[in-house]
Amino acid sequence: MADDIVDVVPSLGVPALGAEPGSSTLAGELGRALAGLRKRKGMTGEELGRAIGASQAKISKIERGALRPSPLDVEKIVLALDGSKDALHELVGQATELQALSSRPRLPRRGPVNQQDYADLESRATLVRDFEPITVPGLMQISEYTRRVINAFHAVDIGDHESKWAETAAKVTQRLQRQERLYDTNKTFEFILLENLLNNMYVTPGYMLAQVDRIEQIAKLPNVTVRIVPMTAQLGLPPSHGFMIFDDDVVVTESLDATVYQDRRSVEFYTHFFESYRELANADLFEVLERYKARYADMAMPKP
């Protein structure tokens, strides 16, 4: 299910996403120490990035504590900044401790994942991978598509959606704000869609036409890749739910009872799953989209 569904399930008070207890503080301290070394050296983040073969965005995230650097990353940075042997030993040690924290097995978190959770994960990630078998990905949805899906959930859940209209409107706004990240060229987005989701009409044909056109426009962004698995493909492991992978750190499965995985084994499993469907996603994207646009345009035309 898309993230608009898990977002409307009442909160269970589960812990925050994306960090092992204690790791955020340590990453912040390490980042500040590295930033201090860089400033004392008189280098910009861009210059440091060039010196060690990394992007300025990566340097910025490390210094803000948003990205946990490997011990090798830290060694390269300290040496490039002419840091002392003591600084090298201490900061590489902190990076090693961070690496150990991040590799500890962690129980999956189950419960609702709201729009702010997704926004936080998307703000930190430089690579976002999204697999969707049923609904258009949230980052691609037009507002009416989002609204209708949420309304349908409320109609089943509480037998009424009109009483939730104000809440739904707020969620639609949050979704549109999240979509602004698609235009950040420091981030890479990769989507794999099953063709059948284009058949699933959660909105009227006119809105479906606009929705398919929106997918086409997003697919043309330089940092976005969209692939479609054709309905004729011989599928592998059944795609029972959608999921998103943030860098190589966090997986969020998208269902009524969302699950967040941060352990290495689970992240690797979903990464392999994603890659196996990437091999099947060999349809000509724009040919498929044009076909559905023509179909919905015809359906939207007034009949005599």
UniProtKB/TrEMBL annotation:
One of its GO terms (molecular function) is DNA binding. Residues 34-88 form the HTH cro/C1-type domain. This is Helix-turn-helix domain protein.
